[in-house]
Amino acid sequence: SVTLPFSSRMSGTRSASTKLDASSDFTTLSSVVSVSRAVAMSMVVKANRVDSSIGGTVEAYVGSHGSIDASTGAVSVKATSSETAKVNAYGIAVSGGISAAAIGVSLGDASITGTTTAYIGGAVTRAGSLTVQAKDTSIASAQTFALAGGVAAFGAAGAGARATAKSAPTMRAYIDAAVGADTSPISGDVIVRSISIGEARAEALGVAFTTFASVAGSVAKVDVNPNVRTYIGGGGTVWATGSVILESLHNYDVDATDAANLTRVSRESKANATSGAGSLVSGAGSDARAIGTPN
Predict the structure, then answer these.
(1) Would residue 31 be called left, alpha or beta, if left means φ above 0 and alpha means ψ between -120 and 50 degrees?
(2) What are phi and psi of 130, to 5 degrees?
(3) pLDDT (tens digit, 9 = 90+) per residue, 152-205?
(4) Rounded to an integer, what distance in angstroms lies between the CA atom of residue 206 and that of residue 143?
(5) Neighbour tally for 29: CB within 10 Å
(6) Separation of alpha carbons 269 and 158, rounded Å
(7) Residue 254 DSSP SS3
(8) Strand ranges of the sheet holding 178-179, from the earlier edge strand across to the other edge
(9) What does the pLDDT look like over 45-62, one tens digit per residue?
(10) Please, which residues have CB within 8 angstroms of residue 156's CB and are 6 or more apart in sequence?
């Protein structure tokens, strides 16, 4: 589990062009592999669990006691974060002999939360343009595999795998102070933008085999639930001769060659669950769910 704070702030007075950036880039990879075996009249049980989570706060802002007079210069306040959380869990349980049983379970959970915020909390008296942007890019991935089996004369085996991947960051970009004035408006555009680029993937495989009875199950769940907020608060006022643009985006980004255009970002979230069992008496079941609820 990782929780990291990053911030870039201004609380004094600044003249001329101003750029405030706060950014973070973090990757976690957690893996576990285990093998167990038993012989004769015995039972072997193997259970694995691995978790990975990333959270925290990334902020860029002009504080309530700060002010900026950039004349005709550009003012930019941007907070950017990037997270990748991956988990892999593989477990194998094997038995053999006259009478034996094997049970294997693998559980994996990858989760991304946290908050990325950019805002104006102090006055921007003059500027050629103003951009306030909060952007998060996240990938959550979980892969699990459980194998249980044996060649006993009277054998039983059970295998279960569960993989869960969740991407639920929060992005906020807002203005909650005076930007420009009726006598000295911002001479260009005012852009306030929150961007979420994310995906989650989960894959679970459970396999069981033996001579007499076996059962296998797998569950894969994906949840993509970014919270994207862009607004002008109750304490905010904006005077501008150009456009005032507020955007909340999910899997869209600013065009690298033309900042006035938006481009779709290709992202794929998916859940795959597979199970199989083989014996005289056997049963297998799988459940895969992918849920996307940007808000």
Answers:
(1) beta
(2) -140, 130
(3) 777 888 999 999 999 999 999 999 999 999 999 999 999 999 999 999 999 999
(4) 11
(5) 12
(6) 29
(7) strand
(8) 13-15, 67-69, 123-126, 178-179, 237-238
(9) 778 889 999 988 999 999
(10) 101, 102, 210, 212, 213, 214
